[in-house]
Amino acid sequence: MTTLSGKTALVTGASRGIGRASALALAKAGAQVLVHYGRGAKEAEAVVAEIRKAGGRAHAIAADLSQPDGPHKLAHGVRAIVGDRLDILVANAGASKAAAIEDYTVEDFDRLFAVNVRAPFFLVQQLLPILHEGSSIILLSSLAAHAVVGTLSAYAATKGAVDALVKHFAFALGIRGIRVNAVAPGVVQTDMSNFTKTDAGRDYTLGMQALKRLAMPDDIGSVVGFLASDSARWITGDTVHVDGGSKL
């Protein structure tokens, strides 16, 4: 992968799971990484410590992205650390809820859209002044946006919205030389997919995949690192499926 030495990156929801793996991949390639967290301060500081131990540069930064002003506060904090230049934005922070249609509440629905759609939209908006030609924005989509996977109708709708945003952002920002893409993981062994720890969940997951193993966060983080790099300089407006051949 092309080196990211001298680059600055923000990864939201980076205290664990795919966000953590993405932050570590970017740092390994040489980027300075801002490790955002909502509630997991201890976990975020552990990610920062791991990056620094390996000789990299990292800072933890907190913001509640479920709140209307969360993206604005996060952008303000980012600018206080990196100044007037951000090279990579990975909008990974997300919320999920598995439930039958009749069991969703308005509060559930609104929270999912607040975290998964509203937050990345306004984070991009607020960081535009420090994004520049050559910057890369990477949003997190999901297999659920393209195929039925469990009882995730509202969550799936948020990821369908993310896919739409990618195309509109890519077109609007292409004139500035800013690339916008998404990664769409399948089932990954994270806290959001605890069902993979059961025999039934494992069997269900492997049954819908061409590749017969469970995905790990690093499988997704390495693709995020690729999209952030100059090796992906001619890719924009795309959603890259990183799902082991799920639901083919």
How would you describe the overall organization of this protein?
The protein is an alpha/beta fold. The chain has one domain: Rossmann fold. It contains 7 helices and 7 strands, in the order E-H-E-H-E-H-E-H-E-H-E-H-H-E. The protein has helices at residues 17-28, 41-53, 70-82, 106-127, 153-173, 199-207, 217-228; strands at residues 8-11, 32-37, 58-62, 88-91, 136-140, 179-185, 239-242. The protein has a 7-stranded parallel sheet, sandwiched between helices. Strand 2, helix 2 and strand 3 form a beta-alpha-beta unit. Helix 3 packs parallel to helix 4 and helix 4 runs parallel beside helix 5. The protein starts with 7 loop residues before the first strand and ends in a 6-residue tail after the last strand. The mean pLDDT is 95.
Helix and strand layout, with pairings?
Elements: E1 8-11, H1 17-28, E2 32-37, H2 41-53, E3 58-62, H3 70-82, E4 88-91, H4 106-127, E5 136-140, H5 153-173, E6 179-185, H6 199-207, H7 217-228, E7 239-242
Parallel strand pairs: 1-2, 1-4, 2-3, 4-5, 5-6, 6-7
Helix pairs in contact: 1-2, 1-7, 3-4, 4-5
Low-confidence stretches: none
Q: What is the C-alpha radius of gyration, as a whole number of Å? A: 17 Å
CATH class: Alpha Beta
Count of DSSP-assigned helices: 7
Question: Could you tell me the number of beta strands?
Answer: 7
Structural domain count: 1
CATH superfamily, called what?
Answer: NAD(P)-binding Rossmann-like Domain
Element pattern in H and E: EHEHEHEHEHEHHE
CATH-derived topology: Rossmann fold
Average residue-wise pLDDT: 95
Q: Biggest sheet, in brief?
A: 7 strands, parallel
Summarize the amount of helix as a percent range. Answer: 40-55%
Structural class: alpha/beta
> Which strand order do you get reading across the main beta sheet?
3-2-1-4-5-6-7
Please give the alpha-carbon distance between the first and last residues: 28 Å
**Beta-strand share of residues:** 5-15%
